Every structure is written in structure tokens, then in C-alpha cells.
Amino acid sequence: MPTESASPSAEQLPARTAAVWAALDPLVDTGVALRVLDVGGGSGMFAVPLARLGHTLTVVDPSADALATLHRRAQTAGVGERVRGVQGDGDLLHEVLADDGGYDLALCHSVLEVVDDPAVTLREIAGALRPGGQVSLAVANRAGGVLARALAGQPADALAVLGDRGPAPGRPARRRFTPEALLALVEGAGLTPGAWRGVSVVADLLETASGADPADVRQLELALAEVSPYREVAAGLHLLATRP
Ligand SMILES: C[S@@+](CC[C@H](N)C(=O)[O-])C[C@H]1O[C@@H](n2cnc3c(N)ncnc32)[C@H](O)[C@@H]1O
């Protein structure tokens, strides 16, 4: 059973991920302990707070360094026994997890941008979920990337992001998504998408430019995350999808 009633979306968490935690809260703050798979979970930015809520985490990540940091963080937070790190690739989950499927919840945050093939990764994640299990997806939003570069005084870079080109000849573009592309990817993996949110509509833009109260920025993020036309220009997109 969860050991804490306080949700990880509480005051101290950064405004830029407030919309993600707002989507996760109804799933993770119910008093029921879940089996959670965090694909590309890195050093545990999400895994450790979820373990502190009483959930059991398996983090799959190819980076030995990130997994070592995850292990340290989990130990320090007193949840080492509920956090397992597995070195591996999101495109090959069936190999690294073997028969270890049936997860209630999977996270795939800021990872589809860097895997070899996001469609393969998402199908692998779908296969690791139990029927009715859900995946939380967070990806970079192309429109937000264009806007951020334009506002930073980098119009050439903004045009490159708009055209899905790299920042310089020969340098590949970081993969970015549109809401439509993300929805198509989810449906292609046989998952049922829920409503999508904008993640960090203003927080990243404000970071360097303003002395605004972080609590006010967090409130603004939560108010804008599900509302058009604001969510369309957020730095990121978030979606919960369900395995039928
Ligand atoms: C930007 S970090 C995101 C970390 C974490 N998900 C978060 O939101 O804080 C991207 C992570 O993806 C991992 N990664 C890179 N290639 C991967 C792959 N093929 N499969 C799974 N994870 C991968 C990296 O090692 C890194 O930890």
C-alpha cells in the first residue's frame, strides 16, 4: 500500500511538469499500489516519486550512469527495494523484461524523441501492459520548438525546426511530434488514446525572462494545459493511452 498520501504534484514540483503530474495523479494517488514500467526512466525523476507513493518500479534504460544515479536516488529516498533498474533498449523490451509483463502503468517520457523507431518502442510498451493498463507519453512538440527558438532570437533555428531539419547541415533534427502524429502513433500500436495536454506552455519560456512566483506559473500551466489554442504551442505534449 502507498506509504504517503501526499501527491507528487504537490507544491515543490516544477511548473514545467505540472501538467504531466496532473494527468498521472488520478492513476497513482488512489491508495492502490501499481506495477509501473518506466521506459527510458533515466535517473528516476518520475520513478522515485512514484516509488515514494508505494508503487513498484521497473526502470529500463540503456545508460549505466543513469541507472547508477537512479539506484542512489532511490536508496536515499528510502525506496530502494521498490525500484529496479534494468539496462536495456525500449525497442527490445520483450527481451529485457522476458516474461515480466502485465504492468498496470508504463511511462515513456522524453524518450520517443531518441529511440531508433518510436512505433516499435510503443508496440513493445503496449505488449508489456496488462489489458486495461495505461501508458503515459510525453514528447517534444514541434510547434513549441519553433516558438521557443523564435522568441530566443534564433529565427534560422526556428525555421529548421519548422521544416523538421537539423540545426546545421549534416546534423540530424531531434525528433519532434505534432499532436496528430502522436495520436497516429498511439493508435498504430493498438492503444486507445485519451485527451492530450500541452506540457510547459509558458514555463520554459518564462524561465530565463521572469521573476514570476513559481506557484503562480504552476497554476497558469495547469489552467492552459488542456485548452486550445494554448496547448498547441506548448514545449511538450502529454497523452495517456490505454491497452484495450
Ligand atoms: C531526456 S532523458 C528522459 C529521462 C526521464 N524519462 C525523464 O522524463 O526525466 C532520455 C532517457 O532516454 C534514455 N534512452 C536513450 N535511448 C533509449 C532507448 N533506445 N530506449 C530506452 N531509453 C533510452 C536515455 O538514457 C535517457 O535516460
From TrEMBL:
Gene3D superfamilies: Vaccinia Virus protein VP39. InterPro entries: SAM-dependent_MTases_sf (IPR029063). Keywords: Methyltransferase, S-adenosyl-L-methionine, Transferase. GO terms for biological process: methylation. The keyword Chloroplast does not apply. GO terms for molecular function: methyltransferase activity. Coiled coil: none annotated. It holds the Pfam family Methyltransf_23. This is Methyltransferase family protein. The lineage of its organism: Bacteria, Bacillati, Actinomycetota, Actinomycetes, Geodermatophilales.
